[in-house]
Amino acid sequence: MLQQYAGIGVFFLVAAIFPIIAIGAAWLVRPKKPSRVKLDTYECGLETQGPTWVQFKVGYFLYALVFLIFDIETVFLYPWAVQFQVLPLFAFVEMFIFIGILAVGLWYAWKEGALEWK
Amino acid sequence: MENLFVNLEASLNRFLTATLPGSLPNLAMALASVVVILLFVLTNVVWLVYMERKVAAYMQDRLGPNRVGPRGLLQTVADVLKLLGKEDIVPVAADKWVFKIAAVTVLIPTIMLFAVIPFGNNLISIDLNIGVFYFVAISSTATISFLMAGWASNNKYSLLGGMRVVAQMIAYEIPLVFSLLGVVMLAGSLKMSDIVAAQKDVWFIVLQPVAFLIYFIAGTAELNRGPFDLPEAEQELIAGPFTEYSGFRYAMFFLAEYGNMVAISALAVTLFLGGPSGPWLPSWMWFVIKVYVMIFLFMWLKWTLPRIRLDHMMQFNWKFLLPLSLANILLTGIAIKLF
Q1: Tens digits of per-residue pLDDT, B257-272?
Q2: Distance between CA atoms of B42 and A19, rounded to whole angstroms?
Q3: Could you say which of A71, B188, B192, B200 has the lowest number of CB atoms within 10 Å?
């Protein structure tokens, strides 16, 4: 068990080291002639106007909140799905109610217009 | 032929156990498999870039790359060499460290996804008992690199693209995860080898056709491929979050994109198309054939449909795909209890 996760750790290390080596190898051969104009922010040849890091559209945040609720639901649903065929009928009905409550939540978000893109 | 790679793995394992002490052989085996997987991903990406251009060309009634090498086969090699010789530009306005780290982290989930993929019979690097869950968890972290790239570039196109990537990927992750639940309920396990074994008689695409469709659509959106390529919409956003990247840093994003396509296709093969099993040919060959059928479907979709609008994309997910995937879980549950 622990051995397997050590293997996953090896995967992580190699996956992190490979791009560093690749970019490092490119650093050895690529030309290095920076100039002020080259390092400007790209905007189709025009100079960029105003700051980029501004307060962003709140619509994205609303979607993220709805996402969070359903993502937590998946954490509950996976163990249930694995044991589904072993569990008694009662567990099935219980999950029905659980999903039902979430469906009501989705319906509420829908009604309140959180799912509309404005 | 069937046991070619299994035998190679076994003999390497025997050699390592004989030479290395303690639990080192296990780590060395993981190292060997990740190197093989890295090579597998790189070869596939080189081939897929060429294939994508050829498929697109034939669908648009033209020839595509045909100058470098026989039938243009060396085109991607030439492209990689060109990228190698490109200057690496980090804009002065950018958040330098986040900008640089994003190009490295983007590849980590891609490689890690392949740890639990069965490439053939008895050919899984690490057969975790939570395989499907591991895949879902790792693939969802890919979003962070895109947001890092979009934010750190300090470029308006990049930021818009980055925000769109996050909105799209987190939205479509939910139907994707729910569609896998139907398969998990039927197999009664999250272990990839158990799921493949459960499909010995009948593939899960037959029992879960709706789940497969949901997985395919949501997978296309997760990969940011057409018709869901809004984050990189060339005509409006140049290249989305990658606008400011150049040279090999850009290549890393490209690599991750195609690598993820292979991974998503491989998961579809494992969960819905019976995994690496089939008659006559060796199992690992069947795996590659099935993965390429899935990849061709993705390409076919991309070059057939126009890009959809942002609000349509959001509404389609939240108001159609999500309720449908929930209904699919309940119907699967009822069907299992009845039969």
Answers
A1: 899 999 999 999 999 9
A2: 12
A3: B200
Judging contacts by C-beta atoms under 8 Å, the chain A residues touching residue B190 are 78, 82
Tell me if the domain spanning A2-112 has CATH number 1.20.58.
Answer: yes
The answer to whether B226 and B301 have CB atoms below 8 angstroms apart is yes
CA neighbor of B301 nearest in space, from B32, B37, B127, B52? B52
B80 contacts chain A (CB < 8 A): no
Angle between helix A59-82 and B156-187 (nearest 10): 20
Q: How far is B66 from chain A (nearest CA, A)?
A: 27
Give the domain ranges of chain A. 2-112
The answer to whether residues B150 and B162 touch, using CB atoms and an 8 Å cutoff, is yes
Separation between Cα atoms, residue B151 and residue B148, nearest integer Å: 5
Place of tokens 């490439």: B119
pTM of the complete model:
0.90
Quote the ipTM score: 0.86
Flag whether pLDDT at B226 surpasses 80.
no
